[in-house]
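Continuing the batch. This is chain 6 of the set; chains 1 through 5 are on the previous pages. Same settings as before, nothing changed between runs. Recording input and output for traceability.
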Amino acid sequence: MDNLRAWKSVLSGADLILDAGDTWEDTARGTKAPEAWATMEAMGELGYDAMVLGNHETYLGTQVLKEVIAAAPFPVLATNLRSDLPTQRWVLLQAGGLRVLVLGVMWDLVLRWPGWELLDPLESVQAALAEAPDHDLRILLAHVDLQRGKALAQALPELHLMILGHNHLALEQPIWVGSVPLVQAGAHGRTLGLVRMNKTGFVSYQLLSRPVGAVLIGAAPC
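Output for chain 6:
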């Protein structure tokens, strides 16, 4: 939580704050429900706009996860998960006078609890885009490995931005797959990914050393 709060001054100027998952649970540090609640509350204080579930969130168990998601003051996305969790397939956000559609998928190492069905990420995103309301920009939070992220970007050229999770890569430059930029800003709040976008899409990306995915929508910096 301290690493998150260290970014308060930067995040206060962001139009959107997005997270690509593995945020509420860390097996390596033995975190459990108390840490999940505290991290979610810190994210709410900082003004997070949306996150996607990562595989580590599923390790919390269905009851804890259901309660934390229900209490979160921001939508938790799981476009390709059918379950009784109070997640959303997408969220439509307003930023800089633009309508930003945000979707979120996960895959590797997700625990499939009884009653859950993990669907194909590509098919799920395509179905969601066909049903989603009118929007200006499309962002995918993808808690998948880099190779699967590249494959998704190749099949989804209509995306304006993909924010990756899972591999904990601290990318100093976006990885381009056709016209789709892929970014990822490390792990544990040590770095922050700052993306600038305008009405046509991606403008610039900066990896700040020191949580994942602040998105500024507007003019490029001078």
